[in-house]
Amino acid sequence: MNILFITIAWPKSGERNLYTDLMDEFVLQKHNVYVIGTQYDELPSDNEIKDENGIKVLRINSGKIRKTSHLRKLFSLLTLGNKMLRGIEKHFPDIVFNLIISPTPPITLSTLYKKLKHKYNARFYLLLKDIWPQGSVDHGVFSRYSIPWLFFRQHEIRTYKTADYIGCMSPLGAEYILSKNTYIARNKVEVCPNCIQLNNNIDENGGEKIRAKYGIPADACVFIFSGNLGIGHGLGFLVEAIKQLADYPKAFFVIGGSGTHFRFLEDKLKEFPHKNVFLYNWLPSDDFNQILAACDVGLILLYKYTVPQFPSRLLSYMEYSKPILCAVNQYTDIGTIVENHGCGCSTIHGNINEFISAIKYFSENKSERQRMGKNARKLLIDNYTVVHGYKIIMNHFKNQYIH
């Protein structure tokens, strides 16, 4: 099959994420994979095709999408569909695509999906990673039933109607979409979770050395929260826990990544004396992998969202056999999944006493950490590898095309 993968989240050449892992599996299964992604240069680009691990990648100059004003981001997203269409027609003129796969965000490519599906008589599989416009409502960008909400809601409905199948990250996510969009047939919505290529060569040696390099105590239970640092995580809650545990030597926190709330964390942590946290904005990839291997517990924080979320950082924790401590609200089932599979504990975001009790439990029970960590790795192997993602998607098309 000829696969067209459309995304604004394809990484730089040589880097990997959920989507490169999944498309690598399609290549491994002898499909022809074409990717159209974006780049964020201010200067015009030549938009040339590059071969990346057997995948033909075309990056379109999208204009600013991240770390910019809402108005500029909107302009870039609204013009992106036409840019991508022109790029496809120019650089892939003789390719007939059998299957189109694309994740959200954005939701503003609905017209592009519809045109491409009609042009190639192709099937379209939507990977639903973020739910918009409700996500913008949760972040306070605009209100429900406002003019922007109505505009984005129109795109959302068109996308769902165009899709032949919609893969949601968890069972609660699938039920949410069906409950809020009663026009969607139940048999076109399924669980197609985040998935990664399993790494069987994790080096767990050197933990003492990497801890010493970054001032992480050798004898503490280290809790890590790394990745996007945004408003939806309720990071003030984590800071309060760190403050209350400032004199508890058995727990240490590693927090890092990029996002709108990194500066917020910096400022909050300056308000009280502490020696139990290492905050970073960026680390060399080798150092980050070593730190992740040397940590003891992965943290999941979800607060502001009213739509089901399933952060991809969970897969990194499971890959490295780390137990998971969740502090989440009632709108996600990630905590339930973690607890039901014996790979961690779930608390209510905002209940500081419950959260601190869980931190102390992990800090004082090494054998339980090890047991839950093994269960976490098993959960990943059984449910969240790209082999599973590939099979879920191709189950709908395996008898339609010969490759």
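the 2nd protein, sequnce then structure:
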Amino acid sequence: MPGETLNVPSPGVRSTSSGARTLPGCLLYSIFARIGGPGLDTDAFEALRASYRGRFLGKAIAYDNRQKEIPGSFIHSLRWHPVRLLSFFDRPYYYGAKKKYLDWIASRHLETGRYDLFHSWSGDCLRSLRMAKQRRIPSIIEIPTWHRDGKKAKTEIPHAAASASNISAFQKWKAGLLLDRKRFIEEYCLADLLVVLSETAADTFRARNFPEEKLFYLPRGADVDRFKPGQRPAKFRAIFSGALIKRKGIHSLLEAWDRLNLTEAELWLIGSVHDEARPFLKQFWRDNIRVVGFVRDPENYLSQSTVHVFPSQWEGSAKVTYEAAACALPQITTREAGDVVRDGVEGFIVRPGDVDAIAARLEHLYRHPEVVERMGKAARRRIVENFTWDHFRTRLLDAYELAMRMTS
């Protein structure tokens, strides 16, 4: 329950919920997302619930508002914005422009001196953090995955080999829309508190000598009324829920499934099919694979499955692992996907890309339905006791209190 000592691994700063709180009077929250949609939009909504119910939400700046609980007067929506004129640019340039516009709007709000705490996300807030520092406003940024240089291969934007003198003014301006590495690194340094979503994420900052007191562990949550156990199918059903991309390990799962050739079993794939997955679907296709595609009700698919397989290469803390566990599914996943699953308790942890391990664990669960039941019950219990959205909001208030005390 909220406020209790939580039975979860807690890297960095622990809960500070005992005693009287020192909470902000007026929060500015900004995020490159919508409020109240799926994915990151849900995180934003639950975060704003904490400050709105605590009566200290000043303003949230986001790209749209899709909820009705928090009055629209608290949401500065950028649904209609001038950067739309650049929508024909390639995605890295367009997204960079949108993020920088969001940042500019947030910095203008901070300039008013109305706010006493700023909460944003890595990549979205360099100008705003500079303003917060100038105004001595405590600041928190969330890291959606890991440190910019941690475990993730760097993606470079191709550019012409011409000398700088041969690049046109327009090309220089366009290149300036990109979010470069230096932006992220400076944000890490400027923020008073860095919110990390998993132990693996925290380790990427520790490896670069960030002090423990600057890290705050804030795992996600699940709606345990929406995501709940259903009737297990008569046939063994493995399910993958997420975008069908290599980063989430879909190619490894397909190869493992092909090797096993299980009878009376099927694999459901829930999520948008990206081009990079199509060759693997063709190479490892079997008639017992069902590609469902993107759905708005993943709970209806998770709750009627046997096991969730999510061998992701890197995440912050994959929300689907919370949702699958809430549906009482044992999981075959990776440590890189987050901290929900403990190896041998709520499922199995494998290394990213370890096809042999994925296949072995799938076969083990296929042949041992009693293990499925035991792990499934443990998974549901772990979510209910540690990872509801109530737990998330309680931890978030702890982070706010800590940031206020750090800078007082």
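The chain has 13 helices and 15 strands. Confidence is low (pLDDT under 50) at residues 1-18, 152-162.
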